[in-house]
Automatic annotation (TrEMBL):
Domain Histidine kinase: 422-609
Full protein name: histidine kinase
Domain spans labelled HAMP: 318-370
KW Flavoprotein (keyword) present: no
Main location group: membrane
Organism (species): Paenibacillus chondroitinus
Gene3D superfamilies: 6.10.340.10, Histidine kinase-like ATPase, C-terminal domain (3.30.565.10), PAS domain (3.30.450.20)
Its membrane topology: Multi-pass membrane protein
SMART domains: HAMP, HATPase_c
Reaction catalysis annotation: ATP + protein L-histidine = ADP + protein N-phospho-L-histidine
Length: 615
């Protein structure tokens, strides 16, 4: 560290602190925001697919009710047991079934557009088909082939089955068939036939098309066998391919899969009334685009903030280093015998005290040298009388004096100003400098960010350390805040100004042993309140009323007309307004006081949700 200048050390330390803060905050913000966005998008996709699944189940449930009505209809059951060659019974039951189908469909208007046809097929090979209120007769051989497939694919326990088929080739791929087996009128164990309802996929697709998945997102349906039901563009894919296998294996879970050369997120839900799996898909790049925007913004803002912070650090470093360099250069000139004084006007800090001490040292050295010079002249006049020995003695004393007042010692002391307190073993200076350093570091953060009660109490503690060293009097503040409230949120630099205001105005004749300042806090009815009480002189009613009116104006304190601020209330009003800037107009500072008995200052803020600590 000896090779580095003080300015480089200050700049390097500032750079490390700023970069670490920006990197940690930026990285944490980016990671958390990315996770939150991914979760929101996933939740949005799940809500969309759940809504589509609910609508689909609602439609299928309506058709299931229609299928139940047909399966339990006495005419349909009787039709299943007519003789294959009995044309009269076939005609009679066909007309009854046709009329029942017409009335059932008309009674439920929502089913009309989505219904393709309803048909009943018996083991005897005869069928009744209702399509757009027309009765059609199909080739018995064709019906027999379809009937065998329906009997094979339909459960024997009377449950419905959704099949990707149609009894008419032209409708193949554009409809799904809801089928169930029907028993005869005797309600025996044997199944006598099948009742099937063909549903148009194009009408159901209007519900699925409401799923908004962006430009590159899409929606599709597969059954438990891996067959693609919707849309038609995917029906050409082979059953049980890799995509269908991933969907069936995932169940109702969300998964990432590479499809058509890009990674996509898939959300799958299984219908409650069928073996359909409704799936929504969106590209991962599109999902994470907002997170990329946040990352770019974070980096840009971080670089700008870094540049501004480094510029402020440079200015702050120069304000400290410049006067030290003046002292250094002046001392070098002093070593050469050129007495130089430094202008100390306008500086009241520690560096100003050093400059004052330096000027005082130069003045005393100059006076001392003049006296020595005058003494030397006087001694030279008497040199002939005193003799050669006495003259040498006077020269030796003069050289000894010069060695004793060598200013190089002070120059070296200023070069090691950071470790001065340790070298001098002065715990008072160390304690005061550390307290001032913490207060300065805490105070330069001027943004109205929320911090904890513990942070504010630590700032008050450092303030009391400096105050006790300045006044030479010890005074303790009673802190009665419960431990579980120390991590509650409040506004930076609001507690210390209240304490300072009390010392300035509550005890005008000085702090006596019976005086006290107490800090307390509580949470009640959704509010978090911090109380600062004292038993000082309090406020007169007219002064209290004037202060309350100013607090009601919700404005920062401004200087008086003569240009100088009135110190009695400027700190209280600014604390009140800063609380409102962070939490809203409903919160702030309130004042209660009684002349001659003390005051109570109350900061009211919203309660934060935080688990309580055990006592």
């Amino acid at each position: 560290m000896r090779g580095k200048t003080l300015s480089r050390q200050i700049f390097s330390n500032f750079l490390i602190v700023i970069v670490l803060s920006l990197v940690s905050v930026g990285a944490f913000s980016y990671v958390q925001s990315s996770r939150a966005l991914d979760g929101q998008v996933k939740q949005y996709m799940e809500q969309m697919i759940d809504s589509a699944n609910y609508q689909t189940d609602s439609y299928l449930q309506a058709y299931e009710l229609l299928s139940n009505a047909f399966s339990s209809n006495s005419d349909v059951r009787a039709f299943m047991e007519i003789k294959p060659d009995d044309s009269y019974e076939y005609y009679v039951y066909s007309e009854k079934i046709k009329e029942f189908a017409r009335i059932s469909v008309i009674s439920v208007v929502t089913l009309y557009k989505q219904l393709n046809m309803i048909y009943a097929v018996g083991q005897h090979g005869r069928s009744v088909i209702y399509e757009n209120q027309n009765l059609l007769n199909f080739d018995p051989v064709l019906v027999k082939e379809k009937y065998d497939y329906l009997m094979k694919m339909t459960p024997v326990d009377g449950k419905i089955s959704l099949l990707n088929m149609s009894i008419r080739e032209v409708d193949q791929g554009s409809v799904v068939t809801m089928a169930r087996k029907v028993r005869g009128p005797s309600y025996g164990d044997a199944n006598r036939g099948v009742v099937a309802i063909e549903i148009k996929l194009d009408e159901l697709a209007k519900t699925w098309d409401r799923v908004s998945l962006g430009k590159k997102g899409f929606f599709f349906i597969i059954d438990d066998a891996g067959n693609y039901i919707y849309p038609r563009s995917m029906s050409e894919r082979k059953p049980q391919d890799d995509l269908a296998s991933h969907v069936l294996a995932s169940g109702n879970q969300t998964f990432i899969y590479k499809y058509d050369g890009e990674e996509r997120m898939f959300v799958s839900r299984k219908s409650g009334y069928s073996d359909w799996n409704l799936v929504a898909s969106m590209p991962v790049d599109e999902l994470r685009r907002p997170a990329d925007t946040i990352r770019t913004t974070t980096i840009s803002v971080g670089l700008i903030t870094l540049a501004i912070a480094l510029w402020l650090a440079t200015r702050f470093g120069r304000s400290i280093i410049a006067p030290i360099r003046w002292l250094k250069d002046s001392m070098r000139e002093t070593e050469k015998g050129n007495w130089q004084y430094i202008d100390e006007s306008g500086r009241t800090d520690e560096i100003g005290g050093l400059i004052h001490s330096y000027n005082l040292m130069v003045t005393r050295l100059s006076d001392m040298i003049e006296r020595v010079y005058e003494a030397e002249l006087e001694q030279q006049k008497n040199a002939l009388e005193l003799g050669e020995t006495k003259l040498e003695r006077q020269r030796a004393e003069y050289q000894s004096l010069q060695l004793q007042i060598n200013p190089h010692f002070l120059y070296n002391t200023l070069e090691t100003i950071n470790c001065y307190a340790i070298v001098q073993d002065s715990t008072e200076i160390t304690e005061m400098v550390e307290a001032m350093a913490f207060m300065l570091r805490y105070s330069v953060q001027t943004n109205l960010e929320e911090i904890t009660v513990a942070n504010e109490l630590n700032h008050v503690r450092n303030y009391m350390i400096v105050l006790q060293h300045r006044t030479g009097k010890e005074f303790e503040i009673d802190v009665a805040i419960p431990p579980y409230l120390l991590l509650e949120k409040m506004v930076r630099l609001t507690l210390q100004p209240l304490i300072e205001n009390i010392f300035q105005h509550a005890f005008p004749d000085g702090v006596e042993p019976h005086h006290f300042i107490r800090i307390n806090a509580k949470k009640e009815n959704g509010l978090f309140q911090v109380f600062v009480e004292d038993n000082g002189i309090g406020m007169k009613p007219e002064r209290l009323e004037e202060l309350r009116k100013k607090l009601e104006q919700n404005r920062l304190a401004e200087p008086e007309e003569n240009g100088s601020p009135r110190r009695g209330g400027i700190g209280l009003m600014n604390v009140h307004r800063r609380i409102q800037m962070v939490f809203g107009e409903a919160y702030g500072l309130s004042v209660d006081s009684e002349w001659g008995r003390g005051s109570c200052l109350t900061m009211t803020m919203p309660e934060t949700t935080r688990p309580k600590m055990r006592n």
